[in-house]
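Example with several molecule types.
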Amino acid sequence: EAGVTQFPSHSVIEKGQTVTLRCDPISGHDNLYWYRRVMGKEIKFLLHFVKESKQDESGMPNNRFLAERTGGTYSTLKVQPAELEDSGVYFCASSRTNADTQYFGPGTRLTVL
Amino acid sequence: RKEVEQDPGPFNVPEGATVAFNCTYSNSASQSFFWYRQDCRKEPKLLMSVYSSGNEDGRFTAQLNRASQYISLLIRDSKLSDSATYLCVVTMYGGSQGNLIFGKGTKLSVKP
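Resulting structure tokens for the full complex:
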């Protein structure tokens, strides 16, 4: 069974540009989570999808971040416009139900210059 | 105050040593508890869940003290492959993982 995949693995952009991160969950996993680790800090929750619906987006830092999961399969996280403090590693995780283990993807390392 | 606090380490131990990590959490309403392992520049992976009665998985033993809001992980007979960062994780949802709340992690380095 293929694991959670994320694209790109690395992204370097300039402040003010737009970046879109993609996450493909494990097939059949209805629950999809986004997390972020900023340098020197702990991994923090951003939001949770159940199928195509946003279950909880309480961790989204501001309205420059937009997450979508059209069709309930893969998800995108767009940052527009990017700021320096958005640099970090963005992890996606998926689980079959919200009671099951979350499996993490390898992350996207975002650097905003 | 951080929601989940851990000693960042690093813990440098020789092979075969026993090492213990501790973690405290601030919200007494926390329901579920876990230890995750994260290798350098990799994703976190679930190591084990932590139950009130304590639980063991091979060389790893986890304990939970709800009264003190304290979680521990004991690793016996350390192997070189145990070198990683160990993340203490809690959730607010009973019987489920829900949204994970992470500590910053404790780094372990096992030396030959």
